[in-house]
Amino acid sequence: MTVPTDLSVSRSLSFPLFLSLLLTSASYTDSSDDETSPRDKQQKNSKGNGDFCIKNIKQADFGRREIEIAEQEMPALMALRKRAQGEKPLAGAKVVGCTHITAQTAVLMETLSALGAQCRWAACNIYSTQNEVAAALAEGGFSVFAWKGESEDDFWWCIDRCVNLEGWQPNMILDDGGDLTHWIYKKYPNMFKKIKGIVEESVTGVHRLYQLSKAGKLCVPAMNVNDSVTKQKFDNLYCCRESILDGLKRTTDVMFGGKQVVVCGYGEVGKGCCAALKAMGSIVYVTEIDPICALQACMDGFRLVKLNEVIRQVDIVITCTGNKNVVVREYLDRMKNGCIVCNMGHSNTEIDVASLRTPELTWERVRSQVDHVIWPDGKRIVLLAEGRLLNLSCSTVPTFVLSITATTQALALIELYNAPEGRYKQDVYLLPKKMDEYVASLHLPTFDAHLTELSDEQAKYLGLNKNGPFKPNYYR
Amino acid sequence: MTVPTDLSVSRSLSFPLFLSLLLTSASYTDSSDDETSPRDKQQKNSKGNGDFCIKNIKQADFGRREIEIAEQEMPALMALRKRAQGEKPLAGAKVVGCTHITAQTAVLMETLSALGAQCRWAACNIYSTQNEVAAALAEGGFSVFAWKGESEDDFWWCIDRCVNLEGWQPNMILDDGGDLTHWIYKKYPNMFKKIKGIVEESVTGVHRLYQLSKAGKLCVPAMNVNDSVTKQKFDNLYCCRESILDGLKRTTDVMFGGKQVVVCGYGEVGKGCCAALKAMGSIVYVTEIDPICALQACMDGFRLVKLNEVIRQVDIVITCTGNKNVVVREYLDRMKNGCIVCNMGHSNTEIDVASLRTPELTWERVRSQVDHVIWPDGKRIVLLAEGRLLNLSCSTVPTFVLSITATTQALALIELYNAPEGRYKQDVYLLPKKMDEYVASLHLPTFDAHLTELSDEQAKYLGLNKNGPFKPNYYR
Amino acid sequence: MTVPTDLSVSRSLSFPLFLSLLLTSASYTDSSDDETSPRDKQQKNSKGNGDFCIKNIKQADFGRREIEIAEQEMPALMALRKRAQGEKPLAGAKVVGCTHITAQTAVLMETLSALGAQCRWAACNIYSTQNEVAAALAEGGFSVFAWKGESEDDFWWCIDRCVNLEGWQPNMILDDGGDLTHWIYKKYPNMFKKIKGIVEESVTGVHRLYQLSKAGKLCVPAMNVNDSVTKQKFDNLYCCRESILDGLKRTTDVMFGGKQVVVCGYGEVGKGCCAALKAMGSIVYVTEIDPICALQACMDGFRLVKLNEVIRQVDIVITCTGNKNVVVREYLDRMKNGCIVCNMGHSNTEIDVASLRTPELTWERVRSQVDHVIWPDGKRIVLLAEGRLLNLSCSTVPTFVLSITATTQALALIELYNAPEGRYKQDVYLLPKKMDEYVASLHLPTFDAHLTELSDEQAKYLGLNKNGPFKPNYYR
Amino acid sequence: MTVPTDLSVSRSLSFPLFLSLLLTSASYTDSSDDETSPRDKQQKNSKGNGDFCIKNIKQADFGRREIEIAEQEMPALMALRKRAQGEKPLAGAKVVGCTHITAQTAVLMETLSALGAQCRWAACNIYSTQNEVAAALAEGGFSVFAWKGESEDDFWWCIDRCVNLEGWQPNMILDDGGDLTHWIYKKYPNMFKKIKGIVEESVTGVHRLYQLSKAGKLCVPAMNVNDSVTKQKFDNLYCCRESILDGLKRTTDVMFGGKQVVVCGYGEVGKGCCAALKAMGSIVYVTEIDPICALQACMDGFRLVKLNEVIRQVDIVITCTGNKNVVVREYLDRMKNGCIVCNMGHSNTEIDVASLRTPELTWERVRSQVDHVIWPDGKRIVLLAEGRLLNLSCSTVPTFVLSITATTQALALIELYNAPEGRYKQDVYLLPKKMDEYVASLHLPTFDAHLTELSDEQAKYLGLNKNGPFKPNYYR
């Protein structure tokens, strides 16, 4: 089987994420396994079922413990399970999924199952699978096709095994990156006749769906989970507020107090980074292209500068723009000795790393994810994660964020699966505001937070339904 | 002339605002004036022009100084004037206005004039006129009809004098509260044939316009200046962050450190209040009905509670909901002695003040805007501004916010006046994103803030025009 | 009677304070009183007692209400009263006092009385007396000699009336500024034979006591209440954190967000100012002479600069040094138009205001406490309180701070009065750490704060007494 | 050679520190070394010198690079070297040292050498030596006796080799933990005749010195470097502000936003922890025994509670008391599932870990430094570093803090070595305030911070020397 060229490109786009999960899962996965390819093994779980392909079914117990720990931090999914004891909103659903296979995903899959769905699953990344979790899922009766360290050929073989099964056709797709969707488009386009919808989580995958939609080729409704307000705020503002500190500390042990930092971009990510660093005693400068965000930066107490005004004096440069070539060689040349450079934005193009790969500069790897780039005069700059995303490469994604995403995915599947004919057309949708609010409400108990309810009189006064939605769709 | 009943109601809606301006202007206005009604006086300015009706033309010099001071803090309008030296985008415009008549408004009017417009102006509030500013405007040739302490009859007479002039018909309306618009609808509906658009600034006025639009009665395009992002963020988040402290201090001299505060509502206003009080060392609790805002409160470090959980222990209760009966008698009964109660929201209904006007409770006015309500057992609660808006009643609106509003008004007039046929229909519009961004950019020099410009390559990469707009319309 | 020249100087040192109290009390005091000097009136209270000299005994009821309100915010003194129901630690004490005569002082005096003391009292400032409070005290049987608007001659006459009474000799002195102490030194030195000690509250008074002590002329023990840790931290760090915002807002209505501010001096006052302004979104620079405080400023996230580096760009200049000539004419010349200049430090010499009183500069009083100083080219700087203390002149001192001071004064009197022979020599003392801690503990209930107690085992482990003191004396 | 029993105890007190350095240095040290004990090897450096005992002289180049990197972050020591080019304040000094042997120590040693001193050095901890740094020092001519993984016998053998050398007697001691000092007391008491002083850095070592002093057995002056203000503030307030976040993230990946945290103790460490967590959006409660610190906590915006009031609801428990048995089994029993428990204080006794080692509880090691303790009902608490210091075990000490300590050590050596006869007696001293200020000033350039200098007139006004000291000794 050959890998379609256009697909291989897309996968590399989600490259940084696997590093993060690689890091997290590193401590859990033993490396003493034998070298036989899982594809060459015949394994069965304790009930005699062999419809899966994973590294080693014997790791199931260890994986189960991982899943149990994750369950404790994903109360929203557990709450969904409870509510599903009476009704099964996914009864009859046949979900084919392609995501990172981690303990958190396992909690999602077992929730979908509790809600009535059948699931077949592949990994969306060749490195990110937690083998012991895959084993626990297989032992639990899930048809999982994934292991850590798949080849590119393995990758597509696993996806194919998920969808290409006699007597079974998926009617829902849960995708992360769009590879699964793309494979079905390429290989089994007829399957879409029975498919009720696609739920897609990643920026890349969503982008592809919009392109399909524009081109008139999207043949089922798709739900864009990536842009729901809860996910956005948590992934960006709140999560980056913490991960910028974590990523910088783990890689460089830098003391934040008194450091001069320039943050390029004052969107949600930039706002989170700036707030955290200011709180830790750094002196923060901001660059912006959008005058509205620029004015917000001013009001929040940051000097708005052009990069060249401060580049000689800052200790840390952080990009959060989503733009390309924000930190170019010219700026890198002018940074002072020891300056730390990293990227928290949405692409790996913000820092022009390529421009540093020239003969006169010496690269020295001083730690995992940390390079010193050394100028002829001895000046060093400290480049983190080779300019890729710091928060994904050098810190971990909190389970709480993953829980929000997973809950949103589950609700999106339920919504698409149960929506009356005609509610959704062949287009890309955001989750209805009310379901966004529902996801949020399921996460409030984590904080022992008590929501106030509108009285009938108040609801009438405000012109709102007592159960929401409470805000216009564009509220962020 | 009789005042139409339905109008008199509407004006009372903007009641709180005048208190604020009354407060501000109090120190500037001498009270030694004679008692003759301006309507009975014959005054002319130094050039012999008498087409105005104000308190006393002799105060013009003093008013001029006020205007000059305001000019220094409204650089965006001054920048507009400069750019207008070449072209006159309002050449031919005949603007009839009805706003508070203050030094800041004068800067706006003189800017409109510099841009080419003719202006006739009345006050939107019977108390808020700065007489000396009105004098300076009259001396400068503006037809102003306004004085501090108008009667209701005076109020409508002034508005009528603005529009009812032989040989002059307005082609643009700038309104604050909708009274002027309403007057023309009632009295001179034919005028709308020549009117190119309405620019409205207030919540109330905008609300009326949407109602007209819904009812199919809006016969010209209208620009909703109130909801532009720059105004909203400044009026709500940033402005309230400061005015909550100011309003509480001026009225009660309370020390914030260590105080327990409950803030009802975590929208922009609530976010601003909470941030400020937390920073001053208060312990802040939040109540919310919307789970998304609730989750934001949690992530921002506030305990989310129901009001009854903390009502006995808090020192200060602040409402920011826009809702009614948030603080009802039941809660007021349970507050502890000395508890301060105030309202920062959008209506004067959030605290059920009416429920406190019962025989067993004693009211004691201890300062301007401060009442002690005393229970039979001696318990006192401290009620501020009788439950009306604290920030308007007991603190001042920063000139910077007024500058943003005035600049937006000017741009909205220019846009409506110059828009090609068909761009705007008989509907209510938000200012185009790009003009929002332009307003923001005009205010950046105040902060000595330097905006970064996209390179051609970057603009292409992002799919943006180099000059904006940079964000989707819903960005907040 | 002539006023000794050397005394008149000292009084003027505490000048700024009266402004503050003047401001606070302004709204409470009616100005409709007759013009007769209190010294020429014969008044008696309802019990026929006439041993007092005040403005008008008829205001007693109004004053009583003021006192009752103050009692609610001074729970520590009320707690002292309760504990004194069994024992009277000041039984036999004859206290002569000279302080501001306000509702808070009244609560102190009535507490001393409840503890067993007899009191005679004069005002330490010719303007600060709340006449109605003095009336309430006189009605309650206190021998008070004070009214608002005393002449210098009145001032000393009142003090003299307190101490010069046949058949009564004070045995304790409570002073604020040292004028009372000085008077007794000058006129009745023999009185010190019976005096057990002096309690002094002000910087000036403490300074004088140390000078007496150095000169070997201090003939009784004195307690320096001014430098106790609770007072210092509250007066400086916590109080200034709030009063810098309040003082600036009340005088200028300036918006803090985005403003560039330089704070001269990073002691406790500077730390408080910087923290508040940073929290409100200002960009704050710091100047310092002490490298340790400078390093603290850096770690707290402030750029440490020399004044000349930022003087051209800042919007607000705040002095907190206790030094002289920190802001000199050279800097004032270079400030930008509209720059606000004020002083939060310990003297009125920090800004060289004298240098601004030159013919080429125009002064314009724009509000109470606010002057525009105008350069020939039209540049204005905004000078607050003519360079005197902003927090005293333009904001109010929170009752909580006054409560801490008053409680410390009461405890200091008790300590000195009851100390066994020999514990205190003829020297100036700080209150013992343990009593400092006791003052603090009496204020914790205000915050519903619950202190943890050491177990016997823990106390032994730490080598501490379970009841304190818990920290070394130098702990701040 | 036998190890004296009383010494072995003391060393275990500094146990946590080695873990930290172990962690830091882990990535730098290759583990592929041969197994021969260094004591059995014969090594010489490139100049033929063999007076050292280390792991492997061949690692010198790698160690040199480490030292060069450290030099860049220790500008104060580098500045001392520069100033010493003219004079050699330690000429003739023979320093024997016993500290962690790391790159930062190497920078200190080479600075002492540049200042004129001869040095012989051993490790104060059996695990913390960076072998490659020791190699670089040996190659550079230093007599170093230390390697990673010494036995207890090796430990004392190395110390002995430092001091027991024919023809060489130390005249200065630099100690960290007091083991070296103790060894000389035990074995070579006569050496103290030539010794001019001891500089001690650790809490433990300082404690021992004070005990010696009390017992009248201290026979030379000793300088307590541990309690200098710069070290205290940086080690405690500023450093813990960062390391609490770092330590929690690295071990648990916990999201801070919205978490409920109780911090036991509000001294400098507690203040740092609380500030950081509040800034990250946690809801923080504080417990205190000292009412003054308690009042500070209130004013800083933290609810002051007893531990039992919140123990059921909090997500994280942090001890910062220096006390013992602050978190006892009773509290651990009542914590909720998943609660994280850790210690930032000064001892490993704050959490009663021993009480958790009972049969009904299961311990599960889930990561390095992270244990789950599992109750019979399945409840887990997450115990970090087995109750030892989190900041030392699970995060790193910033080089900047180490730089301050090392600079203070160098200045203390210079001061004691050059002090005129009689300035220091046989007692324990703090570094003179002025030298504290000097240490601070040497670190200001790191922040590009510009100190203001007093004018002659100002210095006179303040009664200060222009060069300091600027504050009383007790200033913190």
TrEMBL record, chains A, B, C, D:
SUPFAM superfamilies named in the record: Formate/glycerate dehydrogenase catalytic domain-like, NAD(P)-binding Rossmann-fold domains
- Signal peptide (UniProt feature, chain positions): 1-31
The answer to whether keyword NAD applies is yes
**What's one Pfam family here?**
AdoHcyase_NAD
Q: Which residues bind NAD(+)?
A: 267-272, 288, 391
**S-adenosyl-L-homocysteine hydrolase NAD binding domain: residues covered:** 236-397
Q: Which UniProt keywords apply?
A: NAD, One-carbon metabolism, Signal
**What is written in the cofactor note of this entry?**
Binds 1 NAD(+) per subunit.
**UniProt record, GO biological process:** one-carbon metabolic process; S-adenosylmethionine cycle
Listed cofactors: NAD(+)
Q: Where is substrate annotated to bind? A: 102, 176, 201, 231, 235
Gene Ontology terms, cellular component aspect? cytosol
Recorded family membership: Belongs to the adenosylhomocysteinase family.
Query: What is the protein name given in its UniProt record?
Result: Adenosylhomocysteinase like 2
Which species expresses this protein natively? Salmo trutta
**Species classification:** Eukaryota, Metazoa, Chordata, Craniata, Vertebrata
Gene symbol of the encoding locus: AHCYL2
